[in-house]
Amino acid sequence: MTAYIFAAKLILAAAVIGYASWLSDKKPVLAGFIVALPLVSILALFFSYIEHKDPQASITFAKSILFGVPISYLFFLPFLLAERFHLGFWQSYISGLLLLVVGYFVHRAIMTAIG
């Protein structure tokens, strides 16, 4: 059963990512909206609960997502400021990844503080 659930998760995640990246060329605004939806969070919470049947772990997981989403916006900050600071794609991308590393430690501190 676990192998089937894992395969279902892979196929569903790949389909959402593949569709959004395909759509980004034709309708980038719609593709951005689809990617911004909490589809991954909804699916991950569902599959996690189905697999583990642990309500408390699912609640902690959801809280982690709640605090992680705003912190994940740090990745996009260099892209927002790219024109002002004359950053190219790779400079923005790598800066965003570095900011995510900082964000991880902020997230960990928040999750530790709330228990």
From TrEMBL:
<keyword id="KW-0812">Transmembrane</keyword>
<keyword id="KW-0472">Membrane</keyword>
<keyword id="KW-1133">Transmembrane helix</keyword>
<protein>
    <recommendedName>
        <fullName>DUF3147 family protein</fullName>
    </recommendedName>
</protein>
<feature type="transmembrane region" description="Helical">
    <location>
        <begin position="61"/>
        <end position="81"/>
    </location>
</feature>
<feature type="transmembrane region" description="Helical">
    <location>
        <begin position="30"/>
        <end position="49"/>
    </location>
</feature>
<feature type="transmembrane region" description="Helical">
    <location>
        <begin position="87"/>
        <end position="106"/>
    </location>
</feature>
